[in-house]
Amino acid sequence: MSTAERRMPARRANRRAFATLKSIAGFVVVVATTYLGLLAVTFFIGRVVPIDPVLAIVGDRAPSHVVERVRQEMGFNLPYYQQFFLYVKGVLQGDFGTSVLTTNPVMTDIRRVFPATMELATVGTVIGAAFGIPLGVLAAVRRGSLADQIVRIVGLVGYSVPIFWLGLLALLVFYARLGWTSGPGRMDVVFEYTFTPITGFFLLDAILNRDWAAFRDIVSHIVLPGSLLGYFSLAYISRMTRSFMLNELSQEYIVAARAKGLSETRIIWGHALRNAAVPLVTVIALSYAGLLEGSVLTETVFAWPGLGLYITNSLQNADMNAVLGGTIVIGSVFIAINLLSDVLYRMLDPRTRTR
Amino acid sequence: MNETAMTRREWLLTDRPQSRLQARLGRAYVTWGRFAANRLAVIGMLIILGLIVLAIFAPLLAPYSPYVGDLAKSRLLPPDAAHWLGTDDQGRDILSRLIYGSRLTLQVVVLVAIIAAPLGLLVGTVAGYAGGWVDAVLMRITDIFLAFPKLVLALAFVAALGPGIGNAIIAIAITSWPPYARIARAETLTVRNSDYISAVRLMGASPWRIVLRHIMPLCISSLIVRVTLDMAGIILTAAGLGFLGLGAQPPLPEWGAMIASGRRFILDQWWVAAMPGFAILIVSLGFNLLGDGLRDALDPRGSSQ
Amino acid sequence: MSTLLDVKDLRVSFPTRTGVVEAVRGVSFTLGRERLGIVGESGSGKSQTGRAIMGLTPEHGRISAEKLEFNGIDLTRASKAERRALRGKRIAMILQDPKYSLNPVMSIGRQIIETLRTHEPVGRAEARRRALDMLAAVQIRDPERVFGLYPHEVSGGMGQRAMIAMMLVAGPELLIADEPTSALDVTVQLDVLGILHRLVADRGMGLIFISHDLRLVSSFCDRVIVMYAGRIVEELPASRLSEAEHPYTRGLLNCMPKIGVDRHPLPVLDRRPEWAL
Ligand SMILES: Nc1ncnc2c1ncn2[C@@H]1O[C@H](COP(=O)(O)OP(=O)(O)O)[C@@H](O)[C@H]1O
Ligand SMILES: [Mg+2]
User: Whose CA is nearest to atom 21 of ligand 1?
Assistant: First the structure.
């Protein structure tokens, strides 16, 4: 096989290029169909619901000719497939309709609140990975030991505890009773007039502004919800790290690395973890996506002005445009993260690279 | 071999079972041995059995009514001898509400499992057995659902259908089936071309019969493990929906909704919100421990033990 | 001939749920700067013997020996760090299948350099040069190119050459080759054996060559040890293999096909419980 390949370099190069093209085309098809599927579901939820969308806009008491006019204006008299086409077109242009609650275009609202959610999820994932990976490695290396058991229990509890409840208890203990952290919200009202958001990520903005008082305040606000999300991420990451590491440590190349005289530290962190990192990237990406989703509950508890709180507030007011807009945005980020993790996987694993 | 001289254990563990039943019982015995050796798994099983007992005998076990409290005398009482877990703002005994709430929890997990698992099983086995474009289309749909944010989608569904425990169950089930389809498909692919299935095919069995009678049963054990492991997630999602006011409606003693109503008193009467949370934690921990144990016992290769 | 390795009554056992598995049960031999073959069927304890000498017995394994001496160093007394310093530097090991024994996410060049820099304080350029020299020494025609390749990008024969380069780059005195050609195509087996032979001879190393293939061992080694169920059942010079006395060795010899001889019925390897005693 290898000699045959050496004889036909041109054809091999062709085949490689074709394979690359095919995998890119595959990517595009996957992303496009997934996105269309997402829109089909939100369209279905938005249009086939018991609440008449027109009545939701004009109110129940509007005279029937007004209802009819709005129905035509909004295209609700068209067949469903045409409506879906218009819907997809609108969404692709960033048009999610208008929020009944805020009277803004939903897209404008989401742009305003989304950075808060991203910031929280990022802090959570960083905490989760920073603690979860070393704990998972420790558990795998000391398999069966007390440390392993403790990591396992900590992880299992993380999988089993209702996040909103733990958030309430955390607020009660660390904010109300001990006073170690700030309470709900993203920052103190005092700073709201002096603080100028640049990126929307307040931690970053405070650094850019060199506003250290605000920075301290933001940290003391984010530390509770961030650690909470971090704990959930840690539960997942440490468990997967352990299982990947056990798999890698049982491979022959680890024996070879020992036979070379490498230190255990180098074998564990430089060889085994480097290999485990390939699937771990996917895990971390999925955990980040999970935290974005978990924000719906966490933000409610911590009055964190992000997308999750926006969605729940809209839910309570039957503001379907806002709910579905938020759903589409989170869904899109999910798809993007999946895609990104695929790309990262390919970068980390030389076996998937075509040369 | 002399049957009478065998102990029951030997009969179960024999290399040469005399009947299909004996072989099955023998396998079950070995699996049970592996499971029982795992202390945490047994604890998990006991928790779930406890939940079932609570749900069945709720009227006998609950000391007070879950719906009617003494507003005048027993409002927001801290835990004491009369009310072990305290009372809520309506003067209702929290323990009694939790005991009745176990019925709702059980209802949610059972119904979601009954809807989602067969759906996933059907999609996965058909896709795996049929192959070709049927497989491609079904798996694309599965992957699309898998790429969705489950909780947010369930929220949107419930928002559209209207709040209530029935709609919450439907919404969770709709978002839960894809992993089962994946597992069932993977299992189907491993047996599809086995001699055993070929033999059945040669005997003239129809594709549907093969899928229903021969392939689906083979997928059951890995599916059970996965469903058990998912139960905790289902409970948490249901509680989350309840907490947001989208699941079971008051005065139903649903645990998530109980946390939501206790939230107002968290500063001074912490137990109102804390107790239902412990209940959720214990039950979903039970399912996780049980699921882990089942996985290790049924699939000793794949376990990370 | 000076003694490189002296093994006396080496035992390796593994406690398992169903009882203690005794993998090696009192193996003794000495080795100079020569080529010693260890043969035996699968599971006879060859690999565990080699790994015990390397200090790579799995963690839950128990190991004991009356004597385990390398160049006068008492390995049973040596600390973990001392043994680690020996590995790769003075005693090296080649594993069976390069597909699994090379780190898949590290380029071949880096894996060779890693051995070198673990044991010698060499600079980057120097390390690279020596790695390239080593690749040339295992008869890789285009060392520069192979240096940057990842293990999955090379064939099995090329991978095993890289493995040899990685293990010999620091200049060990003793090499343990555990079935180094069993996973390779028959056509490249001889190439790799030839390379191994040359390097061992040129550098004056001691070699323990582990294989289940008696003929291969007899043609490649000076002396042969035959193992069965964790024990040595026979030890003899390779040239006098046909004079083997033990029925197990004779059985192994009998199983090898010969041209022009009727093979009906096919001989079956005889195993008697009393040989394991
Ligand atoms: N990690 C281990 N745990 C338990 N038993 C083992 C382990 N490694 C090897 N053994 C047992 O030790 C015996 C010898 O193994 P090995 O030295 O690998 O044989 P060989 O290399 O001759 O094929 C085998 O019976 C094997 O089952
Ligand atoms: Mg071996």
Answer: C47
